[in-house]
Amino acid sequence: MARPTTKTPGTARPRVRAVTLALATLVGAALSTTGAPAASATPPGIPSKATAQSQLNALTVAAEGSTSGYSRDLFPHWITVSGSCDTREQVLKRDGTSVVVNSSCQATSGRWYSPYDGATWTAASDLDIDHVVPLAEAWRSGASSWTTSRRQSFANDLSGPQLIAVTDNVNQSKSDQDPSTWQPPLSSYRCTYGKMWITVKHTWGLRLQSSEKSALQSMLNTCSS
């Protein structure tokens, strides 16, 4: 997960992994009253329910590794990907509606719908680009043994559903939690989120915990396709 901007500069990013799903649901109910969405962010490569189920079944279940040695610097992110545009800016353009950028590729206007909570924003500063599988979670799930080059590719992956523009405060609440302790406040998006999480872990060969697998299975069970 990435948090390049916040509404309150200087506020520390929480690292508590005990955020409850019940609280998240209440937050979603409050935030989803912001009106009709501008456009729903749709990262590429979201699998069908059947494909996600096969991928989930194939994932290795193991005890979670340690965060010892972890640093975000070991996952170089927001690299330049096209002209003057970095990864964050590319996702903002992809996920927004009528996005206008300046000569530095920074979004100066547009509308963004955050599918995690149902909120719509017109300022890019209100959005974070979430790493669906957080960087620290990836580290604990196998990325600690990767090369820095591979970690950079993971942190800037635009080919799959690993990056998505969402409300910054919702991204803060997620921090580095897995689906056993955090799911999108908007319950109708949990099927999609679960499929995204599964295919990212499968694509990158990451492990998962037993409690994480159970949560993902419950999320998949809510999917119609």
TrEMBL record:
The keyword Signal applies. Residues 112-216 form the GmrSD restriction endonucleases C-terminal domain. It comes from the Bacteria. Residues 1-38 form the signal peptide. This is GmrSD restriction endonucleases C-terminal domain-containing protein. Keywords: Signal. Pfam families: GmrSD_C (PF07510).
